[in-house]
Every structure is written in C-alpha cells, then in structure tokens.
Amino acid sequence: MSQAPAQFTPLDGPVRTTCPYCAVQCNFDLHVSGDRVVKVAPTKACPVAKGTVCKKGLAAAADLTQPERLTSPLLRHGGELVPVSWAEAMAYVRDALTPLLAERPSAVGVFGSGSLTNEKAYLLGKFARVALQTPHIDYNGRYCMSSAAAALGRTVGLDRGLGFPLSDIGLSDLILLVGANIAETLPPIMQYLSAAKHRGGIVYAIDPRATTTARVAGHHLAPRPGTDGILALGLLHLMKNMGRILPTAPAHGMVEVLAQADLYPPQRVAHECGIKETELLLLAKRYAEATKPLILTGRGAEQHAHGTDTVQAWLNLSFLSGHFGKAGGGYGTLTGQGNGQGGREHGQKNDQLPGGRSLRDSKHRAEMATFWGVTPESLPQPGHSAQNLLRVCGSELEALIVVGSNPVVSAAGAGQITDHLKALKHLIVVDFLPSETARLATLVLPGAMWCEEEGTTTNLEGRVQRRRQALNPPGEAKADWQIICELAWAIGRPHGFTYAHFRDLQEEFFRATKGGKADYSGLSADRLDRASAQWPIKSASAPDTPYAYAPTYPTTDGLATLHPPHFTAPPPSRQLLLTTGRLGNQYQSGTQTRRNAALRAENTVQIHPETAREYGLKEGEIVTIRTSHGETQLPTQFSPNIRPDTLFLPFHWPETANLLTNPELIDPHSHMPSFKATPVELLRLPAESAAEHRGKRADFPFFAVVPLEK
Fold first, then answer.
1. Which of 27, 288, 332, 670 could be 147's S-S partner, Cβ–Cβ 3.0 to 4.6 Å?
2. Cis bond leading into 556, ω under 30°?
3. pLDDT of residue 569
4. What local confidence, expressed as pLDDT, does residue 5 receive?
5. Mean pLDDT of 12-16
6. What pLDDT score does 324 carry?
7. Smallest Cα–Cα separation from 519: which of 358, 345, 366?
8. So what's the pLDDT on residue 706?
9. What is the pLDDT of residue 571?
10. DSSP string for 530-576
11. At residue 501, what are phi and psi to the nearest 5 degrees?
12. Residue 319: which H helix or E strand, with range?
C-alpha cells in the first residue's frame, strides 16, 4: 500500500491551531511563508488561555526546522540505521511481524502517547486489537495522571480530569494546589489563580519545594514527599471534629471512610508529614470556613505506588465536606500532556475501548465489535499496562511498536527498561525526531509534527478543539495516521484501515464514541470551527457539558462510592528522598525542548543548603546520587526552597532522574510507577572523578543529544 504522502495546499492567511505542548492547549495563529512558519501569534479568541502563550509555545515553530528532523525511513543494517524507501520499510514490517502474528499475536506490543491526537489514539487502539489482535497496548499516560483517573473512575464512574471550566477557578475562595507547580508546567492557568486572589481567595501550594507557584500563591505547606494523602486524612479528621461533614450526595462507603479518619489526629499527621501542627490546624480552619474550596492535584500527589489512594483521600474530603461538583469548588486533576485527556479515552489504555468504554465489559465489547465488523471474541482481553509491558520486552514480547513516546527517558527504572528494549527482536518507532528510544530501533518511521496534520485534541477541562494543518511534512515523512494504516496493510490485514481522506477517519472516530461515557458523537470539524466543546456531546444538536460531576453519576445505581485509602508508614525522617518533576523551559522527555535554543535549561540536583553543609558540599560540585536501581552524577544547585530531607531532579534528560526510580513499585489501581519519593544515597565524588565528569559532560546541561547513527 505504500504511497507518496498526500500533499496539503497551504491556506491563505494565518492558520489557527493548538499548541503542541501542555494540556491547556492554547490557541495561536501560524503565519506561513513558503514551507516555513514565520510567526506564532497568540489569539485572544482562545477559549482557555485568552491570548496568553508560554515560552514553549512561542518557541514551538523552531522545532519544525530542527536539522535532525527525520525525513525518511531508517532501517538497521550491520548495526547502523540507514535510510531506506517506504517499500523496503514495509517489507521489513511484513517479514518481521507476519510470522509472529500467525503463531502468537501476544508477542507483539504497542506503546502510544498522550501527545497523539484523538483520531490517532483511536486508530492506534483499533490497529492493536483488530489488525494485530494483541492484548498488549498501553501508553505513556500511565506516567501522567492515571492515578487520578483511577480514583475518579472508581468513585463516580467518570474520568474527565476537570469536570468544570477553567474559568471557575477564579470563583474559588480557597484553592489547594496539591503537588501541582502550574506556574512552570501549565503557565496560562495562573491567570485564574490571580482572578481568585483578586476576589479575596486564598491559594495554597502544597509541595516539598517552594516553587514559583508557591511564591505566587502566597501560602506554602511542605509535607514530605509521599505524604499528601495523610494530610488529606488529617483534614477530614478535623472536618469531622468541627461538624463540617455535609456530604455532596448519598454515597456508598461514607461510614468506613469517616471511621478511618478517626485514626489520623493532628499530632500523628503533623509528625508523618513533617509539618507543624499549627500549620495543619490553620489550613483546616480555612477549609472549614470556605464556601467554595477547590482541591487541584498534580503529578506530585499522583506519581506514587499509592497515588490512587492519595487522590482518593482528597476526593473523599471534597465529597464529604459537600463541595464536589460545586461551581468554583470541589476537586479536579490537572492533566499534563497535550492530549493526555483525549489520549486516555479512546483505546490506547490496555483495558479501554473508544468513548471511555471498558474492554472488560461484554456489552461494550459487543458494541465496538459490531462497529468494527469483527466478532466480540476476536477482541483480546486487557494485556499489560505500560510499565509491565516494557518490562516483558525481550521475553514475553518479541516486537514492540512505539508511536510518539520515549520510554528510554520517561519510564521508571529507565536503565532496566533500556535493556529490555535492546533485547527485542524488532523495535519499530514512529517519531519525528531521533529520540533516545528511536536510536535503539530496528526500524524508524518518520511521522508528522503538530502543524503538519489535522486532528482534534482534548484539553484538561475536557474541551475538544481542532488542530489544523499548516504545512506538509518534509521529505518522505507522513502523517502518523497514514503510517498506522500502512502497517496494517503490510501485515496483510487492511480491513478497516483504508481511508481516502483524513476526514473519513475523523468522522469514524466521532461515530465510534456514540453511547460511551466520553461521547464525542455530536462533534464534527464544522461544529468545532464554530466553537470548541466540552464532552459529552451526544448529538449534533445537543449542547456540550461544561459540568461533568453533578449527581447522579454514571455508576450502576447512580451513587458515588468512597473508598478508605491505605498508606504504608513513611520512610525514617533522616532518609533522603528523591522527587522528580518538570522545569519551566522543558517538556516531558525533552526530545524537542532539549534541542530548542530558546528553551535552555540546566540539569542539576536541587539540594537544601543545610543538607549540603551536612555533606560538606559546595554549590556546583558534582555528586553521585544512588538508589538500588541505578546511579547518576550531577552538579548541585543549592535551594533554600526545598525540604532538607528532599532532593529534586528534573526528568527531561537521559541517564539521570529515571535511572534512579523504581521500575517494580507500581500502584495496584492505576499501574502508575513510583516517581516522586525514592530513597536515595548522596555521595561526594573524588576530585579527579569530578574533573573527568565535567570534561565529558560539558554540553550536558543544554542538549545532551547524540546524532542518530547514519
């Protein structure tokens, strides 16, 4: 089926599209001259950001002209990746995968991304289950907000991140940002915090570091990494003592949850969280007095082996104090990746079918089998989730197809995961730049970048927006949806993977969601040209749904179910803990931002000056950070804004943060690895080793990119 990429005729005038980065999904206009974007212009018509765009968005056009851009397929010959034709690339796919699929389809896996458009996420899930017939598909969203998604799903039967418009944040009189550094990760949202503060609202940043967000918020509480859920239990205990239990609606599990809160008096909570009891009591007083308190969790609260329980504890507090689902109050989670919300609704997750359906539900399986023209029995049951899928590469899995993800950098225990990927017989990577994962591939297929293809994305408030094409992909690169279809043809299973135009795929995707919890069936490109819409949208004439969490809930009996969270005892107070996170100028595994000269950032380990003095360290000195999973060497950066018992590493660079995180410690509900509270050793390097390290890594803080083998 291999064919030349369809050529797009550039439109007259600026092209309005969405940013390729975070889940705010700001709108801007691209001004194109010839085959280049010459200007990125924010638009006040943006329904979310109101004309603001962060530095990453403004710098995004430079990514399109990176000299390392992938423009032809690359096939490994004699240990090197060399350019080949699409026909040769598809012949490799045919010869590599067809025998495996005939004998054991479960030997082939698929790993997707929260950066894919809704249409590509849908098509990738369909490809895995209909063409490959493998149970093993998952995506890097497991490393994003899967714990919050799991807690919302098991509590109210629906996961829409924020179940309200972002503008409602400005109505709140108390905002608790739990492990959420939005000034650096979601900058345009800061305008809504400012609106709340302007109305007299109080904003707390609850984080082991006094981040930029904390400084803007004005109130900071610094619990030990991994104890956010215990803090929520302490607040619920105090709400009960103050007579502030006013449930949002009848619910299952309330008696058990309230009984558990009795076990968390202020003294215990202050000790385990490492905060002052007076700080806890003041926060409880403010929460009790607030009429519209809003709890927003981020990855700091969620990326733990008990992340679902942590979110559950905050959900329980919001629900039992009567605020869940209230305009300007309640609970929400701040999705991180550009299409992290849509990416987890339409089939990339191992247990999921389009429209937020469950692969485990026989009714849902029958609905999608009928839609796709296959039998329910042919649809595989759920396979491995992301972390376990990567860990069985080279043993249970012989081949893996990776689309738009870089697990060599982003997966927990990255060193071990890299070894697993190296052990595969076939690693096929679809990407537009040579990521660290692509460099390990046996076949690299060049995909399109954000403004080189059409599609829709869904932002952190469930708002669906059009992403419009402004340019053609360069060279022999193709739109990812075309590549996925070509893969299906190459393995001799073209049924359902022939689309004359992208719009045919898009309309099929919208129809496929009809009747699901995440129902997009009332959408069309024409409707989205008029205005964005928050799902569910159940028909062309139906309105959208700005508020998703009002009773009754999409559960069996319409009631919520609260669950008592469970936490193990925190590590000893003298144990140093590593927490990881993002820097304002960088994004995810850094495949794009590490290459962008406008987004320079330094990779250092942040350490409190008191801790540095205890270890006899000077600022900038190279240290070794070691865990039972790996070690790395980095220069120190002193910061009085971090807890003395905590170290911080950004996760954007290879061979650093995720070499140290635990690949085996996984949340039983969300399958999220533990990224945020890893016990570590801190060691000084001998002077000669430190000098040698500086010589080897002189350019490391900025790019650390090795050219792709030719």
1. 670
2. no
3. 79
4. 52
5. 83
6. 96
7. 345
8. 28
9. 78
10. H--EESP--STTS---S---PSSPSSSSS-EE------PPPPPTTS-
11. -145, 160
12. helix 307-320
All residues at 6 or more sequence positions from 707 whose CB lies less than 8 Å from its CB, including other chains: 68, 434
CB 477 within 8 A of CB 448: yes
pLDDT(693) > 90? no
Decide: 28 and 17 in contact? Cβ < 8 Å: yes
Q: Are 390 and 397 in contact (CB under 8 A)?
A: no
Coil, strand or helix at 28: strand
H or E stretch covering 112: strand 108-112
What six digits make up the tokens of 697?
């890594």
Q: Which residues contact 35 (CB under 8 A, 6 or more apart)?
A: 471, 472, 474
Q: How far is CA 574 from the centre of its chain?
A: 32
Secondary structure of residue 626 in the 3-state scheme: strand
User: Can you state the angle between helices 228-241 and 277-289, rounded to 10 degrees?
Assistant: 60
Whether the link from the prior residue into 640 is cis, omega within 30° of 0, is no
**Mean of pLDDT values over 125-135:** 98
**Tokens 């997707």 sit at which residue?**
112
Nearest CA to 208 out of 238, 182, 180 is that of: 180
Neighbours of 190 (CB within 10 A): 18
Task: Give the pLDDT score at 182.
Answer: 94
Residues β-bridged to residue 650: 581
Q: What strands lie across the sheet with 36-42, from one edge to the other?
A: 15-18, 27-33, 36-42
CA 438 distance to own-chain centroid: 20
Instruction: List the one residue out of 651, 597, 570, 709 whose CA is nearest residue 185.
Output: 651
Q: How far apart are CA 480 and CA 180, in angstroms?
A: 32
Residue 417 has a CB neighbour count (10 Å cut-off) of 23
SS3 59: helix
Mean pLDDT of the region 531-547: 95
Does the pLDDT of residue 288 top 80, yes or no?
A: yes
At 685, is the pLDDT very low, low, confident or very high (cuts 50, 70, 90)?
confident
Is 709's pLDDT higher than 50?
A: no
Three-state SS letters, 418-476 = HHHHHCCCEEEEEECCCCCCHHHCCEEEECCCHHHCCEEEECCCCEEEEECCCCCCCCC
392 CB neighbour count, 10 Å cutoff: 16
The pLDDT, as a whole number, for residue 700 is 30
Cα 427 to Cα 76, 129, 224, 444: the distances in Å are 10, 19, 39, 8
Q: Which residues contact 469 (CB under 8 A, 6 or more apart)?
A: 8, 15, 451, 452, 453, 454
CA separation for the pair 16, 18 (Å, rounded): 7
Q: How far apart are the first and last CA of the chain?
A: 27
What distance lies between CA 467 and its chain's CA centroid?
Answer: 19
pLDDT-wise least confident of 101-110, 591-600, 634-643 = 591-600
pTM score: 0.94
Query: Would you call 646 exposed, middle or buried from its count of C-beta atoms within 10 A (0-12, 13-18, 19+)?
Result: buried
CA distance linking residue 19 with residue 327, whole number of Å: 27
The whole-angstrom separation of Cα 524 and Cα 40 is 26
- For residue 166 the two structure tokens come to 């972002």
pLDDT at 227: 96
Would you mind telling me the total number of residues written for the chain in this entry?
Answer: 710
Most distant CA pair in the chain: distance in Å?
72
Residue 441: other Cβ atoms inside 10 A: 26
Q: What does the alpha-carbon distance between residue 166 and residue 534 come to, in Å, rounded to a whole number?
A: 11
Q: Token digits for 415?
A: 């060193």
Helix (H) or strand (E) holding 91: helix 86-103
pLDDT for residue 269 is more than 90: yes
